[in-house]
Amino acid sequence: MRILAVDHGEKHIGLAISDPTATIASPLKVIQHVSRVLDAAQVANLASENEVALIVIGQSYDEEGKPNLAGRRAARFAETLKEQTQIPVILWDESFSTQDARTARIEMGVSRKKRASHMDELAAVLILRSYLDANKSYKKFSVSSWFRHLHCIKRTICLANRVQVYTLRQTLRATQPTEQTVNQFHA
């Protein structure tokens, strides 16, 4: 299942796509912003061409946890995109993805001149990577592995119960009940 990530900026829209196993995030393209409707149509067409099963749109938040101006723009873009495609569209927290992209380019040794170019594509990769990392644990288990996992849990519980019973028996053997403790128990 391929996933498309969108970093919606004021001037550019960065796109990243996963491999068919939804494990690896790669940059796809940067689109020049024209209008919300035309941009959404371009993204919908690219998603369809690449056989995408889910579109993840980055949404930024302020320090109070509410969508900021850019986040509200992303939400409006998501609504427009939903009108143009049958592919599910979700919003994903992308706070600081552009700053993280800038930092990554600095750490990679990219010159200042080249760093001034589009960050949107790399920011989209970071959004997608964040989404994939947060959701990868759900993909690890097939039905048969879930049954094996449940069987292991059952064995662990049974073992824990045996240990508790054994400990209780040892405790009872170590403390011989007296007539006084028996009377307290029955009271």
Query: What percentage of amino acids are in beta strands?
Result: 15-25%
- The number of distinct helices, counting runs of at least 4 residues, comes to 7
Order of helix and strand elements from N to C terminus: EEEHEHEHHHHH
The CATH homologous superfamily of the largest domain is called YqgF/RNase H-like domain
Query: For this structure, what is the CATH class of the largest domain?
Result: Alpha Beta
The structural class is: alpha/beta
Which residues form runs of ≥5 with pLDDT under 50? none
Q: Which percent range fits the helix content?
A: 40-55%
The N- to C-terminal Cα distance equals 66 Å
Number of domains: 2
Shape: globular
Per DSSP E runs of 2 or more residues, the count of β-strands stands at 5
CATH architecture of the largest domain: 2-Layer Sandwich
The strands making up the biggest β-sheet line up spatially as: 3-2-1-4-5
How would you sum up the major sheet?
A: 5 strands, mixed
> What is the arithmetic mean of pLDDT?
77
Structure description:
The structure is a single chain. The protein is of the alpha/beta class and 187 residues long. It folds into two domains: 2-138, YqgF/RNase H-like domain (Nucleotidyltransferase, domain 5, 2-Layer Sandwich); 143-186. Helix content is 54%, strand content 19%. It is built from seven helices and five strands. It has helices at residues 36-49, 69-84, 97-107, 112-115, 120-135, 143-174, 179-186, and strands spanning 2-8, 12-18, 25-32, 52-59, 89-93. Strands 3-2-1-4-5 form a five-stranded mixed sheet, sandwiched between helices. α1 (36-49) packs across α2 (69-84) and α3 packs across α5. The radius of gyration is 27 Å and the shape is globular. The mean pLDDT is 77.
